[in-house]
Write a structure and sequence with these properties.
- This is Type I phosphodiesterase / nucleotide pyrophosphatase.
- GO terms for molecular function: hydrolase activity.
- Keywords: Membrane, Transmembrane, Transmembrane helix.
- By secondary structure, this protein is α+β, with helices and mostly antiparallel strands.
- It has a domain of about 260 residues: Alkaline Phosphatase, subunit A (3-Layer(aba) Sandwich), CATH 3.40.720.
- Helix content is about 25%, strand content about 25%.
- The strands form eight sheets. An eight-stranded mixed sheet has the order 2-32-23-1-22-7-8-21, sandwiched between helices. The protein has a five-stranded antiparallel sheet with strand order 11-12-13-14-15, with no helix packed on it.
- Strand 14 and strand 15 form a beta hairpin.
- The radius of gyration is 25 Å and the shape is globular.
- The two termini are about 40 Å apart.
- The N terminus and C terminus are likely disordered.
Length: about 725
């Protein structure tokens, strides 16, 4: 699925990739008339009753499952709960525990265990959480990054999801008559999640916001609310809006849309931008802001709703009506002084009370949650990291938003714990990851992003984050109680390290003669605009790997698979591992992995041929990730996005706490799926590469279907807490 260029910028911005050039507007989802035609139909035909019907028949379904389970599976436990704290880092956890900030995690470790959790290769969330769900590596679940390239034209594609609009036709035999459009959603992740196998054996699963679950896939005996890669209503991965009476700096606005508005007396009126309508143009929804200078409060009106909020206070979620479809958004007055007013609006989320796309299974489950708990964020990457990177909001606004979303997620966890007395429960919290990305610089006074700034105000944000998760653990354990038949795990998909220096590997490939520019040009804009593919042998896109321009795979391939490609890979690998930063003299790449030597699954052939295991402090530059070629290879990272994990996976393991001892000191994220199956008496498929964490463990000999031992490392013993 090729992504439109403006929309790609918004998608990449939310995952930490910026784009600096202008280009035509288009949308990768492009739902168009599909939204208008299908928008609220199901809700209008009784979904309210259906949603509450889920609750009403829950005890009956549980009883039926219990009877059927007796003949199918023999569970060893009553319930297994896995709480995901995305990006929680074992080194920081150890440091803050020693400082007395995490006594409850320390108690959990003493009761059961704590260990670094080996993450996926590459160490990036869509890959790691896919391995969590399937028990296999990237070459078997087909997710290597947020992005891949379309080999037909070298343009970027989302790796996990295909969403497109197709014409509807009525087949009359002699002719097909068009009558509107339909939206087609397809999950590109391969293999199968372990909760599907549990459901086939009548074990109930409640799955909340696990990444790479959109569109929500059907499975027996369970509910699911989709996470990472759920789009906003514009069809992007998160496009904020900012309306200001002040002139804004000229240039490209990354990750959102910025508008200059006029104040008339005490009022500001403008429009929110929505999805494409039936005529192909973007739909608009008017809103108004009435300012009271005396009280410093504002009344904000959208559709039939009006809410009064104070300066720098978020509105509740407000329904944003478009023709045939509704979304939800929050408003926040960021600026209000003698120079003017600035109003931030979150990306317009799919309305969970009236879903325009399949964000849950069953479809009415999202509606049920909205009816029971009120509206909540549905965007896959809901915390607006790029609004802070662009400085349209400040750290205070970002933290307020992140903790509001955290509280919504807690309500969802409490609900599934109450409803799932037997079976499997997992809920993933993103707040830990997003705050770590944006505030890591405050752990390092010398970080380039801190230049000329007062860092005292936010220097304790990350320690406080870890302390707050310790308090959250108390709440979880109070809900779970001390039930000997309940297994509780707290895990993360990866850890974190400092990100101070950007590396444009496309520029390095150019300098080494592997990537060739057109007409003697030295630089290129996004999407390889000025690359000569007839002479190029290697290129990079996304955050994790280098592709070989292969004959028979890429449209203008120049390198033959076999000895020629193998020799080229060895050559590039050797040069990368010898690369030094001219500013610091430090090694840039800890290890470059040849993918086929690491992974042997069926989808490795379409993956990057080299996975770049950066050393601490380094990562792909913002423009490199979108196919840009800059003049210089190295640059300082001055963005608020200052911590990262797209490095050698051995440097950024996740965390693993459990209320029981396990059978290894080096658990792997692929071990969770077979452990869940084993605990509920379900046969573990032979293709799974992880091992159960309880009971006897198989010898260390690698099964023929598993990756080489290098892909299952323990944490680096020399790892430092802050780099």
């Amino acid at each position: 699925m090729q992504i439109g260029q403006r929309t790609l910028r918004a998608a990449l911005a939310t995952i930490g990739v910026g784009v600096l050039t202008a280009s035509p507007a288009s949308a990768y989802v492009g739902p168009g008339a599909g939204f208008a035609a299908a928008g609220g139909a199901l809700v209008l035909v009784g979904t309210f009753a259906l949603a509450f019907g889920i609750v009403a028949i829950w005890p009956l379904k549980a009883a039926v499952r219990w009877v059927r389970m007796r003949g199918v599976a023999k569970p060893k436990v009553k319930r297994m709960i896995v709480v995901g704290l995305d990006g929680f880092d074992p080194g920081l956890a150890k440091k803050f525990s020693e400082q007395g900030l995490m006594p409850n995690f320390k108690a959990l470790e003493e009761q059961g265990c704590f260990a670094p959790l080996a993450t996926a290769y590459p160490s990036i969330s869509p890959v790691a959480w896919s391995s969590y769900a399937t028990g296999v590596d990237a070459s078997r679940h087909n997710i290597y990054d947020f992005l891949t390239r379309d080999p037909c034209n070298y343009l970027p594609m989302l790796s996990s999801t295909e969403i497109k609009t197709l014409p509807r036709t009525l087949n009359l035999g002699l002719a097909k008559v068009p009558f509107g459009h339909k939206v087609v959603n397809r999950l590109l992740q391969k293999s199968q999640p372990f909760w599907k196998l549990l459901g086939d054996n009548y074990v109930w699963s409640s799955i909340i916001r696990v990444p790479i679950t959109f569109p929500a896939q059907k499975f027996k005996n369970g509910t699911l609310l989709a996470g990472m890669c759920v789009p906003d209503l514009q069809g992007t991965q998160g496009s904020f809006s900012f309306y200001s009476t002040k002139p804004r700096p000229a240039g490209q606005h990354i990750g959102g849309q910025q508008f200059t508005v006029r104040r008339s007396g005490n009022r500001i009126d403008s429009n929110l931008t929505g999805p494409h309508g039936a005529d192909g143009s973007r739909m608009k929804c008017p809103f108004g802001v009435e300012l009271d200078e005396a009280t410093r409060k504002a009344k904000i009106t959208v559709g039939d709703e009006t809410h009064e909020v104070g300066f720098r206070e978020y509105t509740p979620w407000m329904t944003v009506p478009f023709k045939g479809v509704t979304g939800i958004a929050r408003f926040y007055i960021q600026d209000w002084d003698k120079d003017g007013v600035g109003i931030y609006v979150t990306p317009i989320n799919i309305n969970p009370d009236d879903p325009a796309m399949p964000i849950s299974h069953p479809f009415v489950y999202a509606i049920y949650l909205a009816k029971m708990q009120g509206p909540y964020a549905t965007l896959g990457l809901a915390e607006d990291t790029w609004a802070l990177n662009e400085r349209v909001v400040d750290e205070e606004a970002f933290l307020k938003q992140a903790w509001l979303i955290f509280e919504e997620r807690k309500k969802q966890l409490w609900d599934v714990l109450d409803k799932t007395k037997r079976g499997f429960v997992t809920v993933v919290f993103d707040t830990t990851d997003r705050i770590s990305h944006m505030f890591y610089r405050y752990l390092d006074p010398e970080h380039p992003a801190n230049a000329g700034k007062d860092i005292e105000k936010h220097k304790d944000v990350i320690p406080q984050l870890y302390a707050k998760m310790d308090e959250f653990l108390v709440e979880i354990r109070d809900k779970v109680k001390e039930d000997p038949e309940t297994v509780l795990m707290i895990i993360s998909d990866h850890g974190f390290c400092n990100f101070t220096r950007c590396v444009n590997l496309n520029s390095w490939l150019r300098d080494e003669g592997y990537l060739v520019m057109k007409d003697g040009k030295q630089t290129s804009g996004d999407y390889f605009a000025d690359v000569d593919w007839d002479k190029t042998r290697a290129f990079t896109l996304g955050l994790t790997g280098i592709f070989i321009n292969r004959k028979g795979r890429e449209a203008k391939g120049t390198v033959s698979k076999g000895p020629e490609m193998d020799e080229l890979l060895r050559e590039i690998k050797g040069k990368l591992e010898a690369l030094r930063d001219p500013k610091t003299g430090d090694t840039v790449v800890k290890e470059a992995f040849i993918t086929k030597e690491l992974h042997s699954g069926p989808y490795a052939d379409m993956a990057p041929e080299l996975l770049v295991g950066y050393a601490r402090n380094y990562r792909h530059s913002w423009d490199c990730a979108t196919g840009g070629v800059s003049e210089e290879v190295f640059s300082d990272n001055t963005k608020s996005w200052s911590g990262d994990h797209c490095v050698d996976p051995r440097l950024v393991p996740g965390v693993f706490w459990c209320n029981r001892a396990i059978n290894t000191e080096t658990p792997n994220i692929m071990d969770i799926a077979p452990t869940a199956l084993d605990q509920f008496g379900v046969k573990i498929p032979a293709y799974m590469q992880g091992q159960p964490l309880f009971g006897p463990r198989k010898p260390d000999a690698t099964p023929k279907t598993a990756p080489a031992p290098a892909s299952r490392p323990a944490a680096d013993p020399a790892r430092e807490v802050v780099q």
